[in-house]
Batch of 3 targets.
Target 1
Amino acid sequence: MRNTSEHVLTRRISRRGFLASATALSIREARSAEPVTVASKIDTEGGLIGEIMLALLGAASISTRNRLQLGPTRIVRAAILSGAIDLYPEYTGNAAFFFAMDGDPVWKDARAGYERAKALDLERNKLVWLPPAPADNSWVIAMRADFADAHRLSTLDDFAGWTREGGAVKLAASAEFVESQSGLPAFQQTYGFSLDAGQLLVLSGGNTSATIKAAADTISGVNAAMAYGTDGALTALGLRALADTRHAQPVYAPAPVLRGAIMEAYPQIAALLAPAFALLDLDTLRRLNEKIAIEGREARLVARTFLQQHGLLA
């Protein structure tokens, strides 16, 4: 028979275990009571995917705070690291920049790049990467189709050769594209060309609708534009993406990224977002982006209509 001292000790341990469980539960409930701050970068696709996430969380009765179109990558990344935001769509290829691993070929493999980003951010920053969409939204250089045809430019090798021979290129791009090692510098290094300041029109923010429009309308002599692989405005505005035959760019698959504390408080978020992201392939994203950038529809309505059509939102 257990003696009295053992019995008392067992009761104390049991009570401590109960109190620890109750405390953990109360902390989790307190976190769950806080709205989830959903953000995005300041571009068309970021706003679209952000609206998809807001709609899905709202439908599951998860309170949210809208911080969409927050800023370029460095602003949004700093915000989630500081805890100012909780959830946003990021691109797998950007992890090469986050962890100073630009030269690693892993980022050019969709699956391996995602797994590396997921592991590094969880270990170092307690950030959780959920499964990405089956799309590659890498940066591209696009030109007016009539101009490209006139100069026989269909690949970036063609573009580089034409530029080296003194071709009058004027590229509209964001500061992030010009400065990031995975942006313009990667294209220049891979294809052996160089653009000076006079050949660049650097625009604030990262919204490619502005760079594409500048090229389409030849604003300030612009005939080339930074764009994304999933941009819906390219065809509609008569621009053509030059083929990246040497694969200068990493794979940029959009994925939800959230703070570990939020994942603990709302473990259902993974299952809520997975079906929608699985549907966002290249053609679907181009089509949805076009509805916003070209047809002028509100991102919120485009997102909700998409979810309703696929039975993911009532």
Target 2
Amino acid sequence: MEDLVQLSIAQGCATITLRRPDARNALDFPIIQALADAIARTAKRIKENSNEIRVVVLAGEGKSFCAGMDLKAVMHDPIQMGQMLRQLSMTLLALRQLPVPTIARVQGAAIGGGCGLIVVCDFAVTHPEAKLGYPEVDLGVCPAVVAPWLIKKIGAGPARAMLLCGGTMKGDEGFTRGLVTHCSPIDQLDATVATLVARLVTGGPHALACTKKMLNDLDGSNDERIAIEAAELSAKVIAGAEAQAHLSRHFSAHSRSNSER
């Protein structure tokens, strides 16, 4: 699993890196499982020694942070789609429940489920040219898995407008609309993340853990039932005729575009 998701720890910071750059770190079943495993290992180490890991950075290798769900291989298999969506939903929940501050380092595209990863984190750092958003409805898909986290991040009204309109936006607009907490020039991205990490590791581990738990309790982040129901709804819609038709046209157009290059 280390080939797909790498976990490294240095100076109080655990970095979890998605490593499928040839597919823009798109989320298929193996990489979701590997991410879940890395989060579980991180949580275990924090429990064993609260001073070893004081902050977690979630990153993506290559040009993209995460291009979202990789549905092409499973789009005609409702059972696999459901399993993949349930696994992603529970992985987002586990990421949210880590008892240390989490930061998404968004150097490139964060689309659909990838954008879900960044809003689950406590902080997200990107640059003005990054591509962010939730184009699920454009593909006939319901963004149920990410919807609860987006509502918690930017509020019900703004989340409603964003998810119903679909599409994507640049990083600077994402910052203005609350998807990310920091927006820096791309050549300053790592420096911005490092500055934020340095600030967060000064906090008391017990105080931060208690604060995160309280915040999660207050906004409903610990409600596993919502995560399960969201995955079931997404799976049901994707398996339907409308979504299958939209996705088939999308992948066909994508294949033609690639062959013409």
Target 3
Amino acid sequence: MLVKHELISKIKDFFDLNIYETKVWLALLGKGVASAGEVAEISRVPRSRTYDVLESLEKKGFAIVKLGKPVKYLGIKPKMILEKLKNNARKEAEERVLGLSNIKDTEEFAKLEEIYREGINPVKREDISAALKGKSNISNYLREIIQNAAKEVIICTNAEEMDQKSKLFQQTFDILKKANIKVKIALSGDKNLIKQISDKFKISIKPITIDAKFFIIDRKEILFYLSKSSDKEDVAIWLNSEFFAQSFAVLFEKAMDGGK
């Protein structure tokens, strides 16, 4: 069985295997049931290494030993391997999140907070404006500033963006509603999707034709996107300027009222 080097390389990366493990697993999948000698011949992996590789694949769950003699091996179905790896990744991520959540209760983290608060030149939020890059970084920062709102949040974005981040916005809107924070939303895009979002979040939304993305918090700070949704990387600017945010909010309200 001849397998292209390009396929071997991609499978190796997809499933975090080494070259020999990948070749042996592919050989097993192609043969169905095979002895170590047959695997060595098909995969062209040195016979002296084949036994170790088969043992490694068995431990990782990519192969199993068939009962009987001579000893033969079966390759595990790719779909089963994929589901197993997904479950493992999910479990590891949950454990990592739990571990990170517990850090805030440690003495070391308390010391970090103390250093931040009482440093020689502690950073003051009002002294900062920043450029943000990447969907994750922007979303995390956006969540923080919105959830710290005291009076009002103005949102202007597109329906597709809000729909994709529905989990983020659902949690955020629940927090804002409990705190009696006023929320004003304008969305561009498909009108049917806008109505679905409005019904889902139980919040009034103004359809607009302007393709812009910005968020104004308490008319004191604003986060606005410099990139389009089609761009490879999201780029946004956060400004803590009451004058700029207030001016932007006034323009937003005039646009919402049809320029009156």
